[in-house]
Amino acid sequence: MVVSAKSSPLSELRIALPSLPLRLQEVGRFVAANDYDATTRSMRDLAAEAGADPAAFTRLAKAIGYSGWDALRAALTEARRPSPASPFSGRARSRREGPNADVALITDKLEAEAAGLPRISAHAIADAARALHDAKRIWIAGYRSCRSVAELLNYELRLFRPEQVQLVGVSGPEDLDLGAFRPGEAVIVIGFMPYTNASVRVAQAAYGAGATLIAVADSIAAPMAEGADHVLLFEAASSPGFFPSLTGALAIAQSLAAVTFSLGGTAAKKRLEETEARLAAASTYVAEKG
Amino acid sequence: MVVSAKSSPLSELRIALPSLPLRLQEVGRFVAANDYDATTRSMRDLAAEAGADPAAFTRLAKAIGYSGWDALRAALTEARRPSPASPFSGRARSRREGPNADVALITDKLEAEAAGLPRISAHAIADAARALHDAKRIWIAGYRSCRSVAELLNYELRLFRPEQVQLVGVSGPEDLDLGAFRPGEAVIVIGFMPYTNASVRVAQAAYGAGATLIAVADSIAAPMAEGADHVLLFEAASSPGFFPSLTGALAIAQSLAAVTFSLGGTAAKKRLEETEARLAAASTYVAEKG
DNA sequence: TGATTCGTGCAACAAATGTTTCATGGTCGT
DNA sequence: ACGACCATGAAACATTTGTTGCACGAATCA
Q1: What is the CATH number of domain A120-281?
Q2: What single-letter DSSP state applies at residue B190?
Q3: CB A187 within 8 A of CB A181
Q4: Does residue A149 have a pLDDT over 60?
Q5: Counting CB atoms within 10 angstroms of each CB, which of A82, A181, A220, B136 has the fewest?
Q6: Which residues in chain B are classed under CATH 3.40.50.10490?
Q7: Pairing state of beta strands A212-217 and A186-191?
Q8: What is the topology classification, in CATH, of domain A9-80?
Q9: Which positions on strand D lie below 7 Å from a protein C-beta?
């Protein structure tokens, strides 16, 4: 018989399900409901949990067209594989010409970036913020496009902890700063692929000095994440376009600053108010209108 | 030493990585980079792909505190297990006190920012990008926290138009730049409430000189938007927290750069490739591994 | 330099895996 | 009611799994 539906192993299973023997339906439903366990745990394990015979799983796989349970599991595994290299979720980008091509590009970019933000780990940020709160001193490093993120973080943190926060390499030779890292201090390194040598050097110096290392990167495998106490991941390549996206990194930086401020309590609030008062006195800002 | 982060097996791995033997570092990096395969495929399979000895995986697991590879894999599997559902879509977060208050704050912030991005007008950005493409010269101004966005935009635009893009006030007194604006040039001013006097002065100088003024702001009523040829709006106050959010402004800047690059066609592409080749020759980046 | 420790690959091991076979019990058709 | 057929569970099968003992080589320290 020629079966058409070749979409996903799970839908193949669902389609074939009603025409299967009773016991095979049971295990079939179990697999469909626990497909993550199906890809990770062993057949006998699943059988024990489903209260079925191990052989039933092999028979199920063969019944829906696979050579055996291994083949079915391989298909399920591939179906579940996270897609690092598929930036475009549903959307067959038509890359059409015309005046609307640019608008479509922008819309896609914004949507992709919006989708990437909720995937940032709030727990990791909260932990890192606690480390920042405890740090006697905070160093921040970012190069090339990441420098902008580093500078924002530096700016916001300095609003309420002015003399304890410093960008690496701005007030003199960079090596001077690298040698100044101490235990009890925190070093934040921001970077994504391709990684600059400078950022890796900062991370290694921080690790070597025993300082708390916080890496903001696009991959857990980033070289500056090695030995880091905290790694905050964002998706740099998620959005279409030619340059990697920094939206995620910036969102992390802002959240980090916000939570650190929150942890600072009334003392931090007081410092912030002082800073704002000073800026207002220097008439930095345009006077507000009614 | 007090080790806090017991969170994920991946971070345990990362922390222990630098103190491990050479070969174990290799497989450790491989596992970190391919953790999904690590949970699904067999140890020997991974060893073959990583070009390492199977025994190295067992030793790695034991080196970071697990009883064996199976235990490590089980931990990775649990870490990767999909959350049963996401009941948080409608955000009925209880904003309770305690250790989770920070996490809730971050999650709210990220969600709000993600929601704000699609509200950015793609049409306005496309129009502004066309103006940038036509400009003989591009000036960029941003102060205080907006400086980071200005610098990123400057950086990305200079990747393919190096001698026509310039930040206002970095190469000498700012007034010098303000007097240099000419018709046919474009001036981008980034700012939100409260508005700095400096940014307003730049906008007025641009308007007075007959240059194309592009304002990136949080409101159509922003003073630097007066007389602007293009106004690109983002939501600075949309997210909870103490500092206004720059995510929207950054997204606008990135889209602006991407579309301008796209309009530049092959010439822009050629310039970008030249720049990248130069950076690679200067060994700015860490060499990629196979 | 010599002794020792440590890291590493290879090969053999026991345990666990998926598969197959076989015997049993039930169902359907004639 | 008898035989053919099929679903089902248990046990035996060959493979593959993760692990460990062992030998060799490099680095370390006296």
Answers
A1: 3.40.50.10490
A2: E
A3: yes
A4: yes
A5: A82
A6: 116-281
A7: parallel
A8: Arc Repressor Mutant, subunit A (1.10.10)
A9: 6-11, 16-21
For CATH 3.40.50.10490, the residue range(s) in chain A are 120-281
Instruction: Tell me the C-alpha distance between B35 and B39, whole Å.
Output: 6
DSSP type of residue B64 = T
Non-local (6+) Cβ contacts of B220 within 8 A are: B231, B233
The mean pLDDT value for B227-244 works out to 78
Of A105, A125, A151, the CB nearest to B147: A151
pTM here?
Answer: 0.71
Q: How many CB atoms lie within 10 A of CB A182?
A: 11
Q: What mean pLDDT, rounded, does chain A reach?
A: 82
Which nucleotides along chain C are within 7 A of a protein C-beta?
Answer: 6-11, 16-21
List every span in chain A annotated with CATH 1.10.10.10. Answer: 9-80
Q: Hey, which residues does A138 pair with through a beta bridge? A: A165, A186
Q: Give the nearest chain A residue to B263 (CA atoms).
A: A102
Spell out which residues of chain B touch residue A283, defining contact as CB-CB under 8 Å.
197
Answer whether A229 sits within 8 Å of B4, measured CB to CB: yes
- Give percent above pLDDT 90 in chain A: 36
In eight-state DSSP terms, residue B94 is: -
CA closest to D10 C1', residue: A53
Among the partner residues B33, B39, B245, nearest to A254 by beta-carbon distance: B245
Which CATH number describes the domain made up of B116-281?
3.40.50.10490
Measured CA to CA, the distance from residue B160 to residue B156 in angstroms comes to 8
Which pLDDT score, from 0 to 100, does residue A239 have? 54
Cross-chain residue pair B246–A284, CB shorter than 8 Å: no
Task: Kindly determine whether the C-beta of residue B277 is less than 7 Å away from any atom of nucleic acid strand C.
Answer: no
CA nearest neighbour of B156 among B233, B287, B280, B259: B259
Pairwise CA distance, residues B141 & B199, whole Å: 7
Question: Would you say residue B70 has pLDDT above 60?
Answer: yes
Q: What are phi and psi of B225, to 5 degrees?
A: -90, -10
Question: Which of A194, A231, A251 has the CB atom closest to B110's CB atom?
Answer: A251
A residues 114-173 closer than 8 Å to B (CB)? 114-115, 117-118, 120, 122-127, 129, 131, 144-145, 147-149, 151-152, 155-156, 159
CB A149 within 8 A of CB A191: no
Please report residues of B whose CB lies closer than 8 A to that of A149: 148, 152
Q: Of B127, B254, B260, which to mutate for an interface test with A (greatest number of A Cβ within 10 Å)? A: B254
